[in-house]
Amino acid sequence: MDIDITGARILISRPEWVGFMLTETVVVTWVVMLILVLACRFMTAHLEVHPTKKRQVIAEWIVTSIRDMVQTNMGEKYAHTWYVPFIGAMFALSAGCSLSSVVGAYAPTSDLSTVLGWALFAITDFGQLGAYLSHLFSGPLWDATSAYLLRCDWLLLVLAVVGCTSLPKRLWEKREQTLSPALSDGLRTVWVVIVLLVSIAFLVGDSYNPFLYFRF
User: Among the four 4, 97, 129, 203, which has the fewest Cβ within 10 Å?
Assistant: First the structure.
């Protein structure tokens, strides 16, 4: 079984600078943040009381959607607090970092240091941080909910485990040698469409989930 696990590349390494290292994770994250800042500046420039520009309408829709999400999941008293811009910023940064892989860049959200840092950054009190971490590793390892989830998703779990190996790629390459280029390209297209439709079906089936984005 051929499994290749790689992380972010180290672009600059200077041990003499107190072990300074600059990785792809840091660079891509800062690029995404810069793009988000410029996008926010563009969408909020020259605001009007009665918006006539599409960019202001889109900006207001985004803010309203985030506020409604906070109100639905946290309660009315949090809908007009700092939680709204904080959660909106984290959501936008997470989406931007994840989508960076579409253009061939390294996705910072695939780096454990990124998601762990965000989780710790969200908690400003050390007492709450200790309670949060202890809650993550408390409780039974197996209960009725675990059995139910395994019974419902065992096939998806098996497919995911097999898909993480090089077996599907080897089987396809062996089969592709007997196909014409046109048929090979056609089958690739059909496969991508099938995966897209199945992904949409899963998203629609879990549309009740307030953290729907994290199911992509």
Answer: 4
